[in-house]
Design a protein that fits this description.
This protein is mostly helical. It contains 15 helices and no strands.
């Protein structure tokens, strides 16, 4: 039975969703008009007739009357490779490190765990200069390795997997040993299937994290061919008194929204289950 005051909570949630979605709606509407309409400040709240032209121009050339950007297709491809590399790398490293900390007994085990945990207190900005120096020394500037490898370590994911592994009954571990399962067999055949909801939830979070990276790609890429879509959008915006082709920028922005939204929609059920599952 619903409480009488539920309508107020629903009204507040719907209002918050509308406020959040309104800028996205404006970007979608702006991407359907020409540069003159937006430049004169006369953009209506209804779609225009330039959808196909603007998106084709953004995808294939990225060049407008005043903007000299890169094709959105190449920028999105770079972002996709980076986001997937960071996502799979973080999950793999976090799974193995949490597995080692929980199921193996070796000297300094808890010391290394707390050392990993302490990195949560260090923001990216604090360690970005020494990280860049290491990447540059290894010759990984303007490479996908340089974009991905420094960001695959995740103390948060390691902590989450560790907490989940601690809930695994000792009887399950003993039964696997009695059946002759070695460490990797136990990890591959038992732990991974049990962790699938946690992996799915982290996949969504880490993919969005990797896709939205700005500071690190801006620092590590000096070639336009290696730019990600977030960096590309920012560089398309004019500075000072320069005019800007907002219709192309908005079209590229809408295109940049599509992969994260698709990941959330396709994995929504697993994402929610991984966050709220009582058995994890």
């Amino acid at each position: 039975m619903r409480r009488p005051h539920n309508w107020l909570a629903h009204f507040i949630l719907i209002l918050g969703a509308l406020i959040f979605a309104f800028p996205i709606y404006l970007a979608a509407i702006g991407s359907s008009h020409d540069a003159g309409t937006i430049g004169r400040g006369q953009m209506p709240l209804l779609p225009g007739d330039q959808w196909l032209t603007n998106y084709q121009q953004a995808l294939q050339s990225g060049q407008g009357e005043r903007v000299r950007g890169n094709p959105a297709l190449g920028l999105m491809q770079n972002s996709l490779i980076m986001a997937l590399g960071i996502t799979f790398g973080k999950i793999a490293v976090s799974l193995l490190s949490a597995y080692a900390v929980v199921f193996f007994r070796f000297p300094g085990r808890m010391f290394f765990f707390w050392l990993i945990f302490l990195t949560l207190m260090l923001p990216v900005e604090v360690r970005i200069i020494p990280t860049y120096a290491v990447v540059a020394d290894f010759g990984m500037v303007n490479t996908f390795e340089g974009l991905i490898i420094p960001l695959i370590a995740s103390a948060t994911a390691t902590l989450l997997f560790r907490q989940f592994f601690l809930t695994i009954p000792d009887e399950l571990v003993d039964a696997a040993k009695m059946d002759g399962a070695g460490p990797m067999r136990f990890f591959w055949s038992i732990l991974l299937p049990l962790s699938r909801t946690n992996i799915a939830a982290l996949f969504v979070i880490m993919f969005i994290y990797g896709w939205n990276q700005y500071l690190w790609p801006l620092l590590i890429t000096t070639s336009s061919q290696m730019q990600t879509v977030i960096v590309g959008i920012v560089k398309m915006i004019g500075t000072g008194e320069a005019q800007t082709d907002w219709h192309l920028i908005m079209a590229t922005t809408v295109l940049a929204l599509l992969p994260p939204v698709m990941v959330i929609i396709l994995m929504q059920r697993w994402f929610v289950k991984g966050l709220v599952d009582a058995d994890k």
